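COMPLEX REQUEST
Ligand: adenosine-5'-diphosphate
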Amino acid sequence: MRDKKRIVIALGGNALQADPNDTTAKAQLKTAKETAKPIADLIEEGNEVIIVHGNGPQVGQIVAAYETAAATDKKNEMMPFPECGAMSQGYIGYHLQQSIREEMVKRGIKKEVATVVTQVVVDEKDPGFQNPTKPVGSFYSKEEAEKMEKEKGFVMKEDSGRGYRRMVASPEPLDVVEANLIKSLVDQNHVVIAGGGGGIPVVDKGNGVLEGVPAVVDKDFISAKMAELMDVDLLIILTAVEKVAIHFGKPNQKELTRLTKEEVYQYIEEGHFAPGSMLPKMKTALRFVESAPGRETLITSLEKAKEGIEGKTGTTIVST
Ligand SMILES: Nc1ncnc2c1ncn2[C@@H]1O[C@H](COP(=O)(O)OP(=O)(O)O)[C@@H](O)[C@H]1O
Ligand SMILES: NC(=O)OP(=O)(O)O
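STATUS: Structure written out below.
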């Protein structure tokens, strides 16, 4: 038995871009540095930490940058979507590993931190390819979204009352290609950032051949997969809201502190959680708490992570 907990922390791509009006690398690095503090607290207490992060806004921005470059000068080739996903892993992983390392050095924690470029196997026949549900990139007004749909052929949908965003396919993760390597790094006491952006989705063509596909796997789903493969005790999902709510965004909104899995099933059935944002988090929480007795999932905001971990805020999903 391990004395200390093995924890997967899932960081939202939107939460890492705390201010949607400031999507600069500088702003993200500032958020990463703040986020590193509660993560370092957990490491300092002796816990083993695996960090998974989203990439919705960031991969959308990388894709848009290449689209603009290709449209303005034909010498610029469009970058394929899986490669853009790989770039987003490097970009966000760099910010997180630099920030976590800084915190560990300040506190005298003698551990290494590294990002593993991670591929995730998906099924090319996954129904997710027929119905794009994953929001990527920036937020637009209804008029801007309609123009983009007409001119660029994008699928644009409203995202949780925050504006319209481009939607891409989001297949289910079946396996993590680098799982054994990630596990051995954690077993050797290193802090690992892996499965970034849900992992780069690849199709297994046999004989070791993997082929990238244009999609964004939900990082909440890969967190549950990672938690299962790494034999994790606690899953913490850090996002943009302090607590999960029912009647979200309505005058009768009610924030929830503790939820049993039966209540989660009921609220999913009643449509309280938006697809592409809160719904995958709740499904992830269910998968995790149902995977073994005593497992819990905490959902809270990046800013409230410390209080959430201390049990003072957030929404905890429990088995009974
Ligand atoms: N029932 C709900 N309770 C709380 N937040 C909700 C709910 N339904 C939708 N949301 C939205 O989900 C968002 C979190 O999802 P998302 O932005 O995809 O997270 P991240 O990128 O941080 O993983 C919240 O900021 C909120 O706008
Ligand atoms: N890949 C992913 O789930 O990204 P977000 O956390 O930004 O939605």
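REMARKS: Residues 12-15, 54, 56, 160, 162, 239-241, 244-245, 248, 272-274, 277-278 surround adenosine-5'-diphosphate (ligand 1) (CB under 6 Å). The chain has two domains: 6-122+172-318, 133-168.
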